[in-house]
Specification:
By secondary structure, this protein is an alpha/beta fold. It has two domains: 5-145, HUPs (Rossmann fold, 3-Layer(aba) Sandwich), CATH 3.40.50; 157-278, 3-Layer(aba) Sandwich (Rossmann fold), CATH 3.40.50. 42% of the residues lie in helices and 22% in strands. The chain contains ten helices and ten strands. The chain has helices at 17-30, 51-81, 99-107, 125-137, 166-174, 176-181, 204-212, 229-239, 254-260, 262-270, and strands at 5-10, 33-42, 86-95, 112-116, 142-145, 157-161, 184-190, 217-222, 244-248, 275-278. The protein has a ten-stranded mixed beta sheet, sandwiched between helices. Helix 1 (17-30) links the parallel strand 1 (5-10) and strand 2. Helix 8 (229-239) crosses helix 10 and helix 9 crosses helix 10. The longest helix is centred in the first third of the chain and has 31 residues, at 51-81. It is globular, with a radius of gyration of 20 Å. The mean pLDDT is 89.
Length: 279
């Protein structure tokens, strides 16, 4: 089992290098095809303008989005053309409110979507919309790569965040090509419930399942010594020199995540190593 269809969706030239580099490295390692969709985003919200201005504003923003898409396409073609992997690239324009439809269509036919961090300096709302659409509407796993993370198509040490949830298991199944190739997979359990089904052996069933796939596992049961779960995971990833974190995405509703934060958002706000997610 391997990833043969890789997709990256680019909306900002300044942030395009990292996802392209990671996708190219993974394509080379797994003999895969990289598809780059370069989108110019039309952020017009016509309801905020008086009627006579709508046509002029729409035309101007459309032309700007087309120019951004064309510039992204040139950048992606140059980047991919120098990589030596199989690739394809095309551009398009999407309104911010309709971005999910374009993302989901391509993600649905991809084995893995490689994207940059959605949160941080100079990042627009479209990056979060792309990730959520790929996960929810495209039903695809997503590899989120920090800007400065070195491409590593064969991570040696992988952290799996395990909380017995459906989302965590979906991420583990989708990440199996990475897990099977790793030297060590650390199953991380933070404050397991005292009365849960795995109370006597936290992570035991998961470790057994992965071992039958030839995965070398260790189970780390740790306390929540920091205010947020994401803080604990990030610190543990650094302590254990992990190359990749695998976790389920958005265990709560997205509305609740947007208000309260949640482990997914917090993790992506401060991730220093790539994060593999699925829902």
């Amino acid at each position: 089992m391997s990833y043969k269809n890789l997709l990256t969706i680019l909306t900002d030239k300044a942030l395009a290098d990292a996802p392209l580099a990671h996708a190219e490295a993974l394509a080379e390692a797994q003999d895969a095809h990289v598809e780059a969709l370069c989108l110019g985003v039309d952020r017009t919200q016509t309801g905020y303008y008086y009627a006579g201005a709508n046509a002029m504003i729409l035309q101007e923003t459309l032309e700007r989005a087309q120019a951004e898409a064309a510039e992204l396409l040139v950048f992606a073609k140059d980047h991919l053309g120098r990589s030596g992997v199989r690739w394809s690239a095309e551009d398009g324009v999407a309104q911010l409110a309709d971005l999910g439809r374009h993302t989901a269509l391509r993600a649905r036919f991809s084995d893995l979507v490689v994207l940059g961090l959605p949160y941080g300096k100079d990042r627009g709302p479209e990056m979060e919309a792309v990730i959520e659409s790929a996960l929810f509407d495209g039903d695809a796993p997503v590899l989120v790569v920090p800007d400065k993370a070195r491409p590593n198509p064969r991570p040696k040490t992988i952290l799996v965040a395990w909380n017995q949830s459906r989302e965590a298991m979906a991420a583990i199944r989708a990440a199996m090509p990475f897990l099977r190739a790793a030297e060590l997979v650390r199953i991380v359990i933070i404050d397991p419930p005292a009365h849960g089904p795995e109370r006597s052996d936290p992570g035991g069933f998961l470790g057994q399942m992965l071992a039958r796939h030839g995965v070398t596992c260790e189970i780390d049961v740790i306390s929540k010594t920091l205010p947020r779960v994401s803080d604990v995971l990030n610190r543990h990833a650094l302590d254990k020199e992990a190359d990749l974190v695998v976790m389920g995405a958005y265990g709560h509703s997205r509305f609740r995540e947007a208000i309260l934060g949640g482990a997914t958002r917090n993790m992506l706000e401060q991730a220093s190593v790539p994060v593999f997610m699925a829902h």
